[in-house]
Amino acid sequence: xxxxxxxxxxxxxxxxxxxxxxxxxxxxxRKIKFTDRTIYDYLEECVGEDRDYIAFNxxxxxxxxxxxxxxxxxxxxxxxxxGVKQGDIVTICMPNIPEAIVSFYACNKIGAIAxxxxxxxxxxxxxxxxxxxxxxxxxLIDVAYVRVKNILAETSVYRTIIVSAKESMPFITNVGYQxxxxxxxxxxxxxxxxxxxxxxxxxxxxxxxxxxxxMKSKDVAVILHSGGTTGKPKGIMISNYNFxxxxxxxxxxxxxxxxxxxxxxxxPIFHGFGxxxxxxxxxxxxxETILMPEFDNNHFYxxxxxxxxxxxxxxxxxxxxxxxxxxxxxxxxxxxxxxxxGGDYLTIPMERKINNFLHSHNAKxxxxxxxxxxxxxxxxxxxxxxxxxxxxxxxxxxxNSFCICDPETMEVLPFGNEGEICVNGPTVMLGYFKxxxxxxxxxxxxxxxxxWLHTGDMGYITPDGIIYFxxxxxxxxxxxxxxxxxxxxxxxxxxxxEVKKCCVIGIFHPYKMQVPKAFVVLTxxxxxxxxxxxxxxxxxxxxxxxxxxxKEYEFRDELPxxxxxxxxxxxxxxxxxxxxxxxxx
Length: 585
What we know:
By secondary structure, the protein is α/β, with parallel strands linked by helices. 32% of the residues lie in helices and 24% in strands. Strands 1, 2, 10, 11, 12, 13, 14, 15, 16, 17, 18, 20, 21 and 22 form a 14-stranded mixed beta sheet that branches. The longest helix has 17 residues.
């Protein structure tokens, strides 16, 4: 049978020399039509009459699709009662809890735009996001209140809805959370400016008018945040069409997933990978979604052991945590149909290590890898049977095209040649929010007349259509799956009056893969180094997200320079690699 299949694959490749990856898809898959519905309408269409199926499992509280849609309708009416209109931007600053997902779909149901931001963003970052979006409604996890209380008066926000992670927990878990964590969380005085989630939902009773949503498929539906290829934080405009297409592509690639299967959703919903691949796609497939608002290795172990999920998606640090947890020694993983890694490059040694772990725990599958960026919602390439070569990032997801370009000339290079990875397809963003200049840098029209997303990553494509990532053109650190931008850290550190110059690089970390290290040159009349180091730590904690704060500081008299007079960060990276080798030996 395999010989027959391979014959037809080779025959198809000979007829599609420009897109050989299509040979790996069935004739039916190649006819895929991407929906022109809104995100909410597409979900409702996919679920159909099966509303008694379970949508979410949150600490044992299993919420059916029927309950879920009722909650969405309540939140939608509550937003209307607060004056939210079609095209307005609502900021959602929450982890993976049911209320966050209800809020996201409620926004879409009434034609509002959901602006998804990281709850661990710094005060300065949150202020920047809110100011740019002119958002008037903020739906906020209570633990993040301390970071917004002093800046909301300087933004357009007139109503903040405070949500607790315990809202949808079962009674016993709810009480336990309140005793161990809830009492420690600082909350505002609830008044006209701040309301609880419960009061927000009750306000839905005051809105009984019918509402018409004329939002179009190609309209902006979601704003996600990333530094893109230049490392500067930007809002990424994602349309209904982009978002739904990603979910449809995901459904094709995980063809063995069935309704009532289970997925563990650990990846956060303020990232495209978490929001679309781990929420929207499984919900549209009628898969039960097990929500984890934060990663806890013991809780994760209990889920894997007791609930026997079928799909698990994560970043490389998750696999490290799983393999390092001795409790997993006797866990049976035979229920797994897909284990998907994304968010960072998976090295060949790590890939082999994970596969050995999976197979030794009775899993019949090997880890699959996704490649993408927020500018294309999430994954644009994926590995599955026949394309899961060690070190590869697979083939383009159905409907996508890839090409390799010379970074300077934009000339498309032949198969096998290394250059910049470029993507064209239905998930490519509309552009950066209020930033046409940066949009033009990454969304470029090629000679074929198509708009291509320039990823800032280097790689090559084999004649068989399999893609390999080799290195990054853009200067970026990925720590535990989060994008860390050295120039942001440098700008923060250089605010200190005693700092003359700073350069930040990523250094190896056994668990997080990479963490930032700052090299600092001080002014001549500086205070004691120890005192400045402590001040820099406090400055970074105040200005940066927790995962962007440097783990190491090294003070130097000067920084190495290139022949063009620029700081030679690559030399610093080489020095660190050399230093680590010497330490190991």
